[in-house]
Amino acid sequence: MLDKKVNFVRKPTDEAYGTVAVFEDLYGNLWDLIGTTTASAV
């Protein structure tokens, strides 16, 4: 995603449910990108 110049507004953080990074779309909306941990995956 960095190669495609995606603007991440918050660095990835580890939460109880997985890793979270926040990025901004072309219109200024913020999106959470969440990678779940194996313990919380359904």
Cα gyration radius (Å): 12 Å
Shape: elongated
**SS element count, helices:** 0
Task: Provide the spatial order of strands within the biggest beta sheet.
Answer: 1-2-3
What is the H-and-E element order?
EEE
Distance between the termini: 25 Å
Number of strands: 3
Biggest sheet record: 3 strands, antiparallel
Helix content: under 10%
Strand content: over 45%
Describe the structure.
The chain is an all-beta fold and 42 residues long. The protein has one domain (7-36). Helix content is 0%, strand content 55%. It has no helices and 3 strands. A 3-stranded antiparallel beta sheet has the order 1-2-3, with no helix packed on it. The mean pLDDT is 88.
What key phrases describe this protein's structure?
three-stranded antiparallel β-sheet, mainly beta, 42 residues, 0% helix
Quick overview:
With 42 residues, this protein is an all-beta fold. Helix content is 0%, strand content 55%.
How would the blueprint of this fold be written?
Blueprint: E1 7-15, E2 18-24, E3 30-36
